[in-house]
Each structure stands twice: as structure tokens, then as C-alpha cells.
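Aim 2, interim progress. The first record below pairs a target sequence with its C-alpha cells.
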Amino acid sequence: MSENEKLIKAKKSIIILFYLSVFYFVLLFSVFIDSFFINKDQDLSLTGSVAIFFYVLILATSIFAAVNLYRFKNPKLIRKKAINDSDERLITIHRMTGAFSFYFMLLLLFVALIISVSLNSIELFGFSLISIIVMIIVHIVIKLILKKYY
């Protein structure tokens, strides 16, 4: 891949991250407005824990959008992202992190499944069992897709 192609790919990924953060900001803001001003069925306080959670998420998505907009405007940061995106060591670390996270979550769900039996919690058992099955099916489907196209 040439240097110019790497820069174009980095610009596209920055744009995608920017639009994704704007989408999440709009989604969170609309849920916040709906929860606190339109839907008055619930007794929610604007200084309660739910509101603070929304404030933090809205602030985080706005900062993420601003950072990606700044990255898109700065050619040095685009070049730095292109270098990081094409670094084989970082790609390997990213793939291993994804794999180990999957196995850790699977182990955690197995532990929750075992604990749910001892606590006699049918909800936790059902959630754990369905989550394990879905994770395994998604893993197999993604593996088949990747084998086919790579």
C-alpha cells in the first residue's frame, strides 16, 4: 500500500469516527431530552445518578467528536494515524486484545452461569446461557466470513 493510500484510509477512518461520535451524541441527547423533559412518567432528578451518567456520556461523545474533527484538520495527526494504522506490531496487539477479550468475557459468563445455579437465579442463568450461545455463534460466523474473504 502506498503512502498516499494510507493517508486516504486514515482520513476515511477519522471521518467515520467523527460521524459515529456525532451519531452517539445526537442519540444520547435525544434520549436525555425524552427522559427528563418529554416523558414525565418517571420521577427523575436532573442532579441524580442517571442524569450524571447522561452528562458524562454526552460530554465524552462531544470531546471525541471535537478530537476527531481536530485530527481531520491537522495533516500531521493524519499522517501519525496512518503510521499507527499500518504498524504490524500494533495490528497484532489489537487482534490479540480482541481475542483475549472474547475469551475473558466467555470465561466470565461461564462463571456467572455457575454462580447463577448456586444462587438459584433463573434470570442470571438465562442471560448467561443466551450470551454464551450468541457469542459462540457470532465468533463462528465471523471466522467463516474472514476465512472466505481473506
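The second target in this work package is listed in the same format:
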Amino acid sequence: MRHLRSAGLAVLALAVSASAALAQNKGQLEIGTDFVGLNSNSVDGGSGSTTTISVNSSSNVRVGKMITDKVSVEPHLSFHRNSASGFSSQSTGIGVSALVHLKKAADKPSIYVRPSVAMRMSKFTSGVSTTTSNRTNLGVAVGMKKKLKSILIIRAEGYYLMTPKKDTSPAQTDLGARGGVSIVP
């Protein structure tokens, strides 16, 4: 019971400090999208694992809000659709990331680490069979962003995503790279 109370107090202290930081720092807003990527996807199945490597165009939108001078919170929404040889997949995801700037200088690229959590709703169709899946994934990215003009930013990052096994759906890992652009209104 004491551990539960201590954990509750720690969460309360974190919530109060985060709300104080939000109130004190109005921060800048960054709106962006990732438009190109390279992904290696590995699925652990009952008969071993399979790996797929693909070059894809990502369809996601992200909005970041600086809460301190080094950290921004970044909710994101993503849409993906793939189709090949009688198989198709569609997924919609919603998640949140904490972008932590390790090095931030106005005239140089900014290096960051971005842990994230997301919920992905997917639909897979093969011939006449269709299955749906709702899965949570955890990830981390390391990247760099560079301000080109007063409102234009480019980003490039490498990422790792882990989706745990759920019911009959196997565990999955993604390793990849993506690039995008943002504006700071």
C-alpha cells in the first residue's frame, strides 16, 4: 500500500510540474509531416520470422508544442495503405511523442531523441479473408532537424518501433528512417 501511495505522489508531482512548465512557457508550435521513408519490418510468426523492406511515402501529420526550452510534446496522426498481389493493408494510428533536444543552436542542426507511444488500428485483406487488429506500439527515434528559413524546418530520423504480441497477432519490430518538413507559424 505504501508503494502505491508513493507512486501516486510521484505521478501527482510530475503532473503539477508539467502543468507549471506549460503555464510558464508558451513555447512555439511546429506543424509538420513525414513524406518519405525506408522501413524494415520483422514479424515473429509461429514458423519463424519474416522481414520486409520497403520504401514508402508516409502519410502522417504531427503538431509539436515546446513545453520547455529542450522538450516538446508532439501528438501525431498517421494513415498507411499498402497493396500487392491480392493482399492489402490499411492502418490508422494516433500517438504522442516527447521530442527531447540534446543539442539546440539556432545556426546549427538540432539533434534530438523522440520516445513515442501509439495505437494503430489495422485492416488486412487477402483474397476474401479480412482481419482487423488494434495494437499499441512503443518506439524511439534519434534525429536531426534544421531550420532553413524563419518558418521552415527539415527533419531526418532513424527509428525503432516495437509492437508486442496480442492475442493471435505476432510481435512485430520496425527499423527505419524517415524525412519530413515542418513549419513554425
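The CA atoms of residues 37 and 106 lie 26 Å apart. This observation will shape the mutagenesis plan for the next reporting period.
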